[in-house]
Amino acid sequence: MTTIATWLVSAAAAALLVARAGVPGAGVVGAAAEPANWALDRIDQRHLPLDGRPFEPGGTGVGIEIYVIDSGVRIAHPAFGGRAEPIGDFFGGPLPPDAAPADVSDCASPDGHGTLNASLAAGSPFGVASAARVRVLRAAGGPTCDGTPEATRRAVEWITAHGRTPAVVNLSFRFADAALNRSIHASTAAGFLYTLSAGSAGDVTKYWGPTLPGETLIVAGVDDRDVATRSDYGAALSLFAPAVSVTGAGLRDGGKGWTPARDQSGDSYAAPLVAGVAALYLERHPRATPREVREAILAAATTGVVKNPGQSPNRLLHVVR
Known about the structure:
The protein has a single domain, classed as CATH 3.40.50.200. The chain is globular, with a radius of gyration of 17 Å. The protein has helices spanning 11-20, 38-43, 113-122, 149-162, 178-189, 205-208, 271-284, 290-300, and strands at 2-3, 65-70, 84-89, 133-138, 140-141, 146-147, 167-171, 193-197, 217-222, 239-242, 302-303, 315-316. The chain is α/β, with parallel strands linked by helices. α3 runs parallel beside α7 (271-284). The chain contains eight helices and twelve strands.
C-alpha cells in the first residue's frame, strides 16, 4: 500500500530544494507578463536562466482526453473551466459498466495531490494543455487516502475497455506490482500512452519492471536550477521535468486556485507536465501511436542540461514544436 505522502520529497529535503527554487509569478498567478508556474517557463526554453516570457506551447490540447488516475480531482475547480469529468471511484471495487459516476473528490487533504496533477497537465493558467479534457479516476481512499495497486489496476482496465482515444493517461502512483504492469501493457497496446511518476524512490525498474520503459514515459523531477531530485533512477528512466516548488490548483482557500508552492515538490508533479505535452502532440497528430508520441517527446527534449542525472538519460522535457 502506498500513501500520497510517499510521493513527496521529505520535509527536510523539500525545505532545502524550495530554498533554492524561486517561483516566477507565484505572487501574480495568471499575470500576462510571465507564466503562472515556473515549470511552464522552463519547458518552452532550452537553457537557463528563465526568461519570464509567456508560455508558448503551440497548441491547447483541444479534442484530447487526459485520464488522471490519482487521489481524485476537485472537478469544479475554476482551473478546469468545466473540462474535468468524473469516471468513478475504483478504490471500493470494480466499476459496473452502467454505474453512474461515483464521487471523485480529491481525498488528499489539505493540498490535493490529484487536483494539482490534473492542473499541471491541463489546468489554466498552471498547466500545459489548457483545453484538453480531464477524465478523473480515483484510485485512493480511506482515512489516509491510500492508493492500492488493485484499485489502480481496475482504473487502468476501465480505460482499456471504455476509454476514448486520442488520449494520454497520467499515473503518479507507483507500485511494484506485476499485474498492474501487465494491465498497463495491454492498455498501451489499445492505444493509450502512459506517463508515469518515477516516485522519488530510486531505480525505476524495481517497481515499474524492466519492460514498461520501452512503451511508457517514466518521469523524474528537477528544480529550477536543473538539479534532479535524485540521481539513482537508472538507465530506464525516460526523462526529467520540473517538479520542485511548482504551482497549481489545490484544495486550500475554498478552491480558489491557490496551492502554496512550498508544499508542491516531488516526482509526482513531473509526470503530468509530460502528459500535457503529449496532449499537445496528439492535437496535431491524432492518429499517432503511443510509441510515436513517446519518440517525439524524447526527440524534442533538451539534452545535457540536468546537472546530476546519474545513469539516466540526460533529457529535460521541452514542448514539441
